[in-house]
Amino acid sequence: MNNATHNDNGTVTQYGFSCGYIESHHFEALDHSVSLSRENGCYFIKGYVPYKTTDIDFLLDDIWKGRHVYNSYRLLNDARKAFSKLKNTPDILIHP
Q: How many whole angstroms separate alpha carbon 87 and alpha carbon 69?
């Protein structure tokens, strides 16, 4: 997209966030998502990030857990770094 609200790589621009656009990432494993948005001059990362663990008490069955995320950032660059880290961290989300 080559306009004022989106960069060439598809991410939302600072102006786009000011207009109310939201960037989101969907985790297929548990049907949850995490989003990056702007409200009242701050950038927010909100959502639920799943991860897979193994519990020995249940004969090594795969158990899905997660954590709620609600972080605020003053600068878009800092928010993007954290959002990218959240999107790319869970390589264990490949459902067997």
A: 12
